[in-house]
TrEMBL record:
GO biological process, alphabetically ordered: proteasomal protein catabolic process
Alphabetized Pfam families for the sequence: Proteasome
Organism: Natrialba taiwanensis DSM 12281
Membership in a protein family: Belongs to the peptidase T1B family.
Role according to the record: Component of the proteasome core, a large protease complex with broad specificity involved in protein degradation.
Subcellular location: Cytoplasm
GO function terms (MF aspect): threonine-type endopeptidase activity
Main localisation: cytoplasm
Protein name (record): Proteasome subunit beta
Chain intervals with Polar residues compositional bias: 1-14
InterPro entries hit by this protein: Ntn_hydrolases_N, Pept_T1A_Psome_bsu_arc, Pept_T1A_subB, Proteasome_sua/b, Proteasome_suB-type
NCBIfam families (alphabetical): arc_protsome_B (TIGR03634)
């Protein structure tokens, strides 16, 4: 076997590894970046949206409108389900970029299923909210601001998850482009100890109020009721059915 020639690539291997104490250690990767231009943003499907979460005596009620738009100017879909079950007794809304929200929901649902498979018990809603905040802060989930609602052994919970990963719990919360309009009604109508039926009517009225003036919200309402027995989601194109 020939000895490596002086100054060949092979002969300099030791020098190349001199600053690396462990050449077999895993390399730290990086998350993909969202390098979207203004033109790109105008072609991204967005939910616009008004989404509402309310804690009740029975559990949690979540309500969302049903509209998606392109660049906030064109209605691209009139039947978007903006609330999805991600936990045996928990659900998450979609707000902002449709792609980012769908990816966020899929990732959280997978983590919940993995946790239960490993431990034999469902993840607590507080732990799920912390995980959602960590994902929003550190993951490639573009422009989202969802609501997480759920029921566990500690009671009923509603959390707002902001785009920077902030997690805030409240008795009721609203996110999306129609939030100011919906909050005005909720501030007047919410009270402690609401039953799910009453909260459903109030939430639907708040979505209808937002849809009257906010161009990013409309086309009906999805209503989600969460109790310790599970999650039920129903869509209504006619507000008169539920208000």
């Amino acid at each position: 076997m020939r000895a490596p020639q002086h100054n060949s690539e092979f002969s300099r291997t030791v020098d190349q590894l001199a600053d690396d104490s462990n050449p077999y250690a895993p390399e730290v990767g990086s998350l993909p970046q969202n390098d979207l231009s203004r033109a790109d943003l105008d072609n991204v499907n967005k939910t616009g949206t008004t989404t509402i979460g309310i804690t009740t005596e029975d559990g949690v009620v979540i309500a969302t409108d049903m509209r998606a738009s392109l660049g906030g100017r064109f209605v691209s879909n009139k039947n978007v389900q903006k609330v999805e079950q991600i936990h045996p007794t928990g659900a998450l809304t979609m707000v902002g970029s449709v792609g980012g929200a769908q990816s966020f929901i899929s990732s959280l649902r997978a983590e919940v299923n993995l946790y239960e498979a490993r431990r034999g018990d469902p993840m607590s809603i507080d732990a799920l909210a912390t995980l959602a905040g960590n994902f929003a802060r550190g993951g490639p989930f573009f422009a989202i601001h969802p609501i997480l609602g759920g029921v566990d052994s500690e009671g009923s919970h509603v959390y707002s998850i902001d785009p920077a990963g902030g997690v805030m719990e409240d008795d009721y919360t609203v996110t999306g482009s129609g939030m100011q309009l919906a909050y005005g009604l909720l501030e007047q109508e919410y009270e402690d100890g609401l039953a799910n039926d009453d909260a459903t009517t109030i939430a639907a009225r708040a979505i209808k109020s937002a849809a009257e003036r906010d161009t990013g919200s409309g086309n009906g309402v999805f209503l989600c009721e969460i109790t310790d027995e599970g999650v039920e989601i129903n869509g209504h194109h006619d507000f008169e059915e539920v208000v």
